[in-house]
Amino acid sequence: MEEITDPGDPRLADYLSLTDVALRRRAEPAGGLFMAEGEKVIRRALAAGYPMRSMLVTPRWAEAMREVAAGAGAPLYLVGAELAERVTGYHVHRGALAAMRRTPLPAPSALLPGARRLAVLEAVNDHTNVGAVFRGAAALGMDGVLLSPDCADPLYRRAVKVSMGAVFSLPYARLPRLGPGLDELRAAGFRLLALTPDPAAVDLDAAAREAAGSRVALLLGSEGEGLSPRALSAADARVRIPMSHGIDSLNVAAAAAVAFYALTRPAPGG
Amino acid sequence: MEEITDPGDPRLADYLSLTDVALRRRAEPAGGLFMAEGEKVIRRALAAGYPMRSMLVTPRWAEAMREVAAGAGAPLYLVGAELAERVTGYHVHRGALAAMRRTPLPAPSALLPGARRLAVLEAVNDHTNVGAVFRGAAALGMDGVLLSPDCADPLYRRAVKVSMGAVFSLPYARLPRLGPGLDELRAAGFRLLALTPDPAAVDLDAAAREAAGSRVALLLGSEGEGLSPRALSAADARVRIPMSHGIDSLNVAAAAAVAFYALTRPAPGG
Lengths: 270, 270
Fold this sequence. Notes:
The structure is a homodimer of 270-residue chains.
Chain A: E1 2-3, H1 21-27, E2 33-37, H2 39-47, E3 52-57, H3 59-71, E4 76-78, H4 81-88, E5 96-101, E6 117-121, H5 127-139, E7 144-147, H6 157-162, H7 166-169, E8 172-174, H8 178-187, E9 190-195, E10 202-203, H9 204-210, E11 215-220, H10 229-234, E12 237-240, H11 252-264
Parallel strand pairs in A: 1-4, 3-4, 6-7, 6-11, 7-8, 9-11, 9-12, 10-12
Antiparallel strand pairs in A: 2-5, 3-5
Helix pairs in contact in A: 5-11, 9-11
């Protein structure tokens, strides 16, 4: 354990100004770094095979995290809570922050063998929503996530945190282009269902019953725009969650959770 | 329409320092005021029968909201965007803010006739979660919400906003005490289901099938603590959403949405 008291110490370079999106993007090319925060999430990142570069802890968490860093073969930097906040630019709530090394993403085709239920996200570019959708997809038993090129990064700090580490538990890949990616899914026998608030779409429950024996890829769009016309027309069916009381939609994480649940529960009597 | 340029103008008193929780609580006793923000939410509050005290608009929204205020018989105050922010203490994103008058809440017993699916919230004291649970409950066809005495106020600004106005569409009441309230529900023929991550609980899907013909009250606890031992032991059954990939829970709004969906969809073939 190395105690650091100088905010300009070069060992703290990975932790500088984490709230600045531009800086994070510069620091996060392929093979770059990402941040895991809090004991549970850090342990999940390690269990998923991500190498640790270093860990920053505040005094209260030093003892608990010492063996985690040692097990990962990474240096452990001890800093005061005030210095941690000054360096990172935000309040380090969970007392431990690990700089992790990215590993190459699998090819989309690597997710297909054995998968029965995939989520496909189109242009979900809010990190909180990406994290929440991953948490729901992992918790409810989806087999993986495919991202359109313009989806937000699941390993961005906020997405990791909101997902409670689910971004480490669930396989995911990025489609180089959405259209050919959907063609590949269909060729592999997946039925493509597009989730939409469109009242003309099929009710989710009926669609889930019909798809019980098939492989399914569920297409989800962003909160504001929904799925693009191209994605909607590429789908085999449009699916909606029936709405009541004059409410027109759920937020994307709640809608996704409901759809994941409907598509993953076993057929009655099955 | 009355233009106001002085931040100390007494007509702006309802809109002062809306971000200060202590001030809001002082201003929101029974029969006090609450805030509705944005055209859609303001219209929903009016449609639900809440009287409008006044409305504050920024210039861009003045024309669109003029007839809404006139229809409600309330004064419309026009202020610059900067003055709006200075008075309220936050950026008035949706350009229109209405000070509404509370009406007396119904007694819990008034929600029971005709209701088949109720949500009962215990100690959900985060306004974002209360708003999100209401949005899901209304959208997914629950018939009403009962709140324990220590639940957060659904008419608090943040809850109203996150609910997208669902707090106006869905009947709700506050139980003077949780225990006797649950007794009353049971006496009215409701089956009490407690949602919990406890692995020993019954799977939601099986519980929903079993309860298809019954009246059901679904008990939901707060994100941190879950339901109290008292609430758990008062329930007729404990129900869980099966979890995968080592994830131990969903957030309360997503879990609630999944449970509402499971309990409100028609039985297969029914």
